[in-house]
Each structure stands twice: as structure tokens, then as C-alpha cells.
Amino acid sequence: MGRTVPDVTISAMLPRDTALRLLGLERRFCKTPSCSVLYYGADGRMVDKGEARVRVALKERTPPTTICYCFDVSAEDLRREVQTVGRAPSAERIKAEVRAGNCDCERKNPSGACCLAEINAVVKLASATRKKDCCG
Q1: Which among 41, 54, 110, 135 is most buried, taking Cβ atoms within 10 Å?
Q2: Over the chain, what HEC string results?
């Protein structure tokens, strides 16, 4: 079952007419990458990823795969940083911005959620891959 999405996310992500169809009902974000449905309502209503105002990277098979919509950072950016400098300065910057209250995840991220868990997972995997590649 997907994450419940607030009205503010629906209003920010979808054209007005499409958003109005979903406002006022329980609806969720579909986190299945292979599914084209972006949001689905408790009553069976669905909205396709193509109706969103932004490219929903989770639902796409080709880069860039935006991971932080507030500060425009992709998974590829994070991996490249880890490979070249051994850490992810973008991840550190995003964490600082979140702590300072400078993010707007509910309006900018199609899931309506903070991206820090996803960022941490990408950096952790990239770091493990880097160690394996360099240290055998």
C-alpha cells in the first residue's frame, strides 16, 4: 500500500482539473517503479505519471533520476560524487538544508515525502560499490 499524499502535494503536482478529481478523498502515491499509476484514490480513481507537472524519476527507466526535487539532485549526481571524491557533498548540503527548514518536499516531491532516506540509501550503495571497486 502506498503512502498517503496530502492535498498540497496533489495541488502542486497536477493540473487543476486533475487535482480537483482527487482532492477531498483518501489517495496514495504508487511507489512501484514499473507501474504507470502515480496516485490512486480509495474509490478507484487513478492518475497516470504522465499527468504530473514534473518527471517522476521513480517511474522512469532512463536518467536523470531525480532524488531530491527541492534542490534538484539526481541519484546519478550522488553516485558520481562518491566515485570521484569518496563522499557526497550534495547529500551533506541537502541534510543541512532540511535541518534549516529550507525544503518544500510536500510541494516539490511527487511522493509528498522527504527524500533523505532515499539519498542515504543511494550514497550507502555507491560507497559500498566504490570500496569494492578500489579495494577488491
Answers
A1: 110
A2: CCEECCHHHHHHHCCHHHHHHHCCCCEEECCCCCCCEEEEECCCCEEEHHHCCCCCHHHCCCCCCEEECCCCEEHHHHHHHHHHHCCCHHHHHHHHHHHCCCCCHHHHCCCCCCCHHHHHHHHHHHHHHHHHHHHC
